[in-house]
Design brief:
The complex is a heterodimer of chains A (about 425) and B (about 325). Chain A is built from 9 helices and 20 strands. Chain A is α+β, with helices and mostly antiparallel strands and about 425 residues long. Among the domains of chain A are: about 100 residues, Beta Barrel (OB fold (Dihydrolipoamide Acetyltransferase, E2P)), CATH 2.40.50.100; about 200 residues, Chloramphenicol Acetyltransferase (2-Layer Sandwich), CATH 3.30.559. In chain A, strands 10, 13, 16, 17, 18, 19 and 20 form a 7-stranded mixed beta sheet that branches. In chain A, a hairpin with a 4-residue loop joins strand 4 and strand 5. In chain A, helix 7 crosses helix 8. Chain B has about 325 residues and is an alpha/beta fold. In chain B, about 35% of the residues lie in helices and about 15% in strands. Chain B has 12 helices and 14 strands. In chain B, the strands form 3 sheets. In chain B, strands 3-2-4-5-7-6-12 form a 7-stranded mixed beta sheet, sandwiched between helices. Chain B has a 5-stranded mixed beta sheet with strand order 9-11-10-13-14, sandwiched between helices. In chain B, helix 8 links the parallel strand 10 and strand 11. The chains are: A alpha+beta (about 425), B alpha/beta (about 325). Chains A and B meet through helix 1 of A and loops of B.
């Protein structure tokens, strides 16, 4: 019997997907593993592979259409099917994606995977748990996405939930006051709590993209539940700019790409986080997790929003590696080709609006991370130097938005102090 | 406590009720002078005479109809069907007459009839003699349906059925007639509509009726001995009225249910039980409900295949392991 193909759930925040492009048309032979279509989720465009051999019998969703997860989008006639065979109702028609998205663990952008050793379900579009396990998990505050199922077919059963630690970091963010997991199930309420002026005849009403919705939900959750405070420091950017000129002067000749100011700031941030690791941390409800690895989320503006791809294990990276990796991530972020694991798991975020001429700003904390750095433009301005004279300087303003539950004023200041030292004396980064 | 056969337990129950109430009569094909096709009524004609134990022509529609009519006037007939498979020629009398008369008379006419006989496969008597119609009959409001699995239950339920003022469909099993159980000498009744936990357990509930209960008890032994799984065996005893509380209590205790019946799967009794459990104990389930029934085909005539058609302890064990 023909096999219905459904819109796959490719991330745990995905409730609907847009069919960007059909790679097969009706009547095409399909082999297992062939790319059937490109699906745009709230964060990325992914390739949807065929799960069985057969012939694409029918297409129900046209390119550009957006449908709910689980909705049938096509029908695959299996070998031996006759035309007109009814579709076999097959539960949760499994569809693989090339991105191997483990949707149950895919976090919205830049949410760090809180504990590396937490078991994650091997695969599957949604958490498979018995009704009893679900009931007990709800009562104990256990996050089932972090529980490994030991029942038949990997189902989470009672014993798995009983053995899971209710206070585990993954579960903790569900508590009030912790923003790590905004309630994705109830999107509209928080986003549109104050009704907008109704659209007039000349106004445009733009349906929310999946990304827009996630941004809205996560930032509302962050701003309304994370106790923010802000620190600002102005640093002398001249040495950094001089270093950049020096490096780039030979870039072309040696075939290397040019280093950006942002690359240097990233390098300095990594060095400063190494000095003050308490800022490279997250609020986990009943604990603070200080991460050993520095996974730096770098905010990248994309067409209809922003993404924060992660520069992973940044501590050991050379300036050249940083530059190339960030460039690659940013390029693929703009074309929505990032894999989920490339935008999740960050431990600290850097946002730079300097290229737009913004001198200073404060970004909203990217939960559950403890802090986010806002980098302004390097601008020429009069400065009073050590000798009390007014001279022309190259100044850059750095803002740090902190989750006060994790980072106190003195700690945040200490971090900015270290950062300033590295920016003003970039040679120290060589140590 | 003496060990007696399922057959003897039924015989004792009939004799005690014939003695106790002069309105009780037995009728059916060969029940009197021949002592019953399966000897359930052995000795009763000699003891109680032709007015109380009546041989009938080979016409189920005729003698069931007669018994329904008699019951409306106060007689308490116990009608033997040589096989419950033969009830199909008398569905009108059973369902339209016995099943509906109390309702259609506004409660003025009761129908205290018992229709009894074997309803089982597994004896190489062919498809038309191997039906298990407990699901059909339990589908009729107005009829009660019981399926005793042991001699003890058969006796207690038969006495309760005869004293019940509604029509009771009493389904026996020829494979059990010769099996022995402990049955007390003193009088006892088993109320219709009360299930029995035949074996206590903590890990999984095996819910069954009729001979499938014995299959489950054997499976429970294997599960305990070879797999360390403690299975509880719930015997429904009555299909209708159904003792929901006992079976739900067991599911709430073990969080897993395997439903076993010798009936066919489609619209079987266990389809009803599964629906009940998911409706009333969904959040107690730690695994999907599983069913084991006779394989979905007419009773197979080949004896080796017929044995495999009915639920076996091994099938129950395998199904239980699949969700433990």
């Amino acid at each position: 019997m023909p096999l219905p193909i459904e819109m796959p759930k490719l991330s745990d925040t995905m409730t609907e997907g847009t069919l960007v492009k059909w790679q097969k048309k009706v009547g095409d032979k399909v082999e297992m593993g062939d790319v059937l279509a490109e699906i745009e989720t709230d964060k990325a465009t992914m390739e949807m592979e065929a799960f069985d051999d057969g012939t694409l019998a029918e297409i129900y969703v046209q390119e550009g259409e957006k449908v709910a997860v689980g909705q049938q989008i096509a029908l695959l006639a299996l070998p031996g099917d006759k035309p007109g065979d009814a579709a076999a109702p097959r539960p949760a028609a499994p569809v693989k994606t090339s991105a191997k998205a483990d949707s149950s663990t895919v976090a919205p952008p830049a949410a760090p995977a809180p504990v590396a050793e937490v078991p994650v379900p091997a695969s599957g579009a949604k958490v498979k748990a018995s009704p009893l396990a679900r009931r007990i998990a709800a009562a104990r505050g256990v996050d089932l996405t972090r529980v490994a199922g030991s029942g038949p077919g990997g189902r989470i059963v009672q014993r798995d939930v009983l053995e899971a630690k209710p206070g585990a970091p993954a579960a903790a963010p569900k508590r009030p006051g912790t923003p790590a997991q905004p309630a994705m199930g109830a999107p509209a309420a928080s986003v549109q709590s104050i009704p907008a002026l109704p659209a007039g005849p000349n106004d445009r009403t733009l349906p929310l993209s999946g990304m827009r919705r996630v941004i809205a939900e996560r930032l509302v959750a962050s701003k309304s539940t994370v106790p923010h405070f802000y620190l600002q420091i102005e640093v002398d950017a001249a040495p950094l700019l001089a270093l950049r000129s020096e490096i780039n002067a030979t870039a072309e000749a040696s075939g290397r790409g040019k280093i950006t100011v942002n690359d240097l700031v990233i390098k300095a941030v990594i060095a400063a986080l190494g000095r003050v690791p308490k800022v490279n941390a997250a609020w986990a409800g009943d604990a603070i997790i200080e991460y050993a690895a520095i996974n730096l989320s770098v905010a990248v503006a994309v067409e209809d929003g922003l993404v924060t791809p992660v520069l992973r294990d940044a501590a050991g990276k050379s300036l050249g590696e940083i530059s190339e990796t960030v460039k690659d991530l940013a390029t693929r972020a703009r074309t929505k080709k990032l894999k989920p694991e490339e935008y999740q798991g960050g431990t600290f975020t850097l946002s730079n609006l300097g290229s737009y001429g913004i001198e200073s700003f404060f970004a909203i904390v990217n939960p559950p991370q403890a802090a986010i750095l806002s980098v302004g433009a390097a601008v020429k301005k009069p400065v009073v130097n050590g000798a009390g004279q007014i001279v022309a300087g190259q100044r850059m303003t750095l803002g740090l938005s902190c989750d006060h539950r994790v980072v106190d004023g003195s700690l945040g200041s200490q971090f900015l102090g270290e950062l300033r030292a590295f920016i003003e004396k970039p040679a120290l980064m060589l140590l | 406590m003496p060990l007696i056969t399922y057959r003897k337990a039924l015989n004792d129950a009939l004799a005690e009720e014939l003695l106790r109430d002069e309105n009780v009569v037995l009728l059916g094909e060969e029940v009197a002078e021949y002592n019953g096709a399966y000897k359930v009524t052995e000795g009763l004609w000699a003891r109680f005479g032709s007015k109380r134990v009546v041989d009938t022509p080979i016409s189920e529609a005729g003698f069931v109809g007669m018994a329904v009519g008699a019951s409306m006037l106060g007689i308490r007939p116990v009608v033997e069907l040589m096989f419950w498979s033969f009830s199909y020629v008398t569905f009108d009398q059973i369902i339209n007459n016995a099943g509906c008369v109390r309702y259609m008379s506004g409660g003025q006419i009761a129908c205290p009839i018992v229709i009894r006989g074997p309803a089982n496969g597994g004896t190489n008597v062919g498809a038309t003699h191997s039906h298990t119609p407990e699901n059909f009959l339990a589908n009729t409001p107005g009829l009660k349906v019981v399926c005793p699995a042991t001699a003890y239950d058969a006796k207690g339920l038969m006495k309760a059925a005869i004293r019940d003022n509604d029509p009771v469909m009493f389904m026996e099993n020829t494979l059990l007639y010769g099996e022995q159980w402990e049955v007390p000498e003193e009088e006892y009744l088993i109320p219709i509509g009360v299930a029995d936990v035949k074996r206590e357990g903590t890990d999984i509930s095996l819910i069954a009726h009729g001979r499938a209960v014995l299959t489950c008890l054997k499976a429970a032994e294997i599960l305990q001995a070879q797999h360390g799984i403690s299975a509880e065996v719930v015997d429904l005893r009555s299909i209708r009225p159904l003792d929901e509380e006992t079976l739900l209590a067991s599911v709430r205790k073990t969080h897993r249910a395997v439903l076993v019946e010798e009936n066919k799967p489609f619209c079987g009794v266990d389809a009803q039980i599964a629906s009940l459990i998911q409706e009333k104990a969904f959040d107690e389930l730690d695994a999907p409900i599983q069913r084991i029934s006779a394989l979905d085909a007419p009773a197979i005539y080949s004896p080796p295949l017929e044995k495999l058609q009915l639920p076996t302890p091994d099938r129950v064990v395998q199904k239980a392991l699949s969700i433990c």
